[in-house]
Write a structure and sequence with these properties.
Blueprint (H helix, E strand, L loop, with lengths): L2 E8 L5 H15 L6 E7 L6 H10 L3 E4 L1 H5 L8 H7 L5 H9 L8 E9 L5 E9 L1
Parallel strand pairs: 1-2, 2-3
Antiparallel strand pairs: 1-5, 4-5
Helix pairs in contact: 1-2
Length: about 130
């Protein structure tokens, strides 16, 4: 069975329901089920983000965090100068998904690029999904 990694980015204080909706939509787009997710990942500045921690716990997914310097080294299809301004890296969700999939995972492994979702709470969550070989 194919497994996937989920990269997560979000606004500070995002609601769990917003992240949950973003992840569900991205999994549908990937044709994947939650039980196929091997790992979720984000940036170190989100280590205390309650919604990310709760979502990973809900699904039993290991959740890893990468420093911005490491994320910045990953080539991604949708880099953002706005994201770089706030986090120190041009990509959080895409780069985190690729890093979690394993070293030297190619950009082509991204099955969902930077899926953005604005929740009823007015906050944004971004999800990327990579195929893990």
């Amino acid at each position: 069975m194919t497994s996937f990694t989920v990269g997560l980015g979000c606004d500070r204080g995002v609601a769990l329901v917003t992240v949950r909706e973003a992840v569900q939509a991205a999994l549908v787009q990937a044709g994947a089920r939650p039980e196929q997710v091997a790992m979720a990942a984000s940036i170190t500045i989100k280590q205390d983000e309650a919604a990310l921690l709760a979502l990973a716990q809900e699904h039993g997914w290991p959740l890893v965090f990468y420093p911005p310097e490491k994320l910045a080294q990953v080539a991604v299809p949708n880099p953002s100068e706005t994201v770089r301004k706030y986090t120190g890296t041009p990509s959080v969700s895409e780069a985190a998904a690729l890093l979690a999939a394993g070293p030297d995972t190619p950009m082509a492994a991204l099955v969902v690029e930077k899926h953005k979702h604005r929740g009823a709470d007015g906050r944004n969550a971004t999800v990327s999904i990579a195929r893990k070989d």
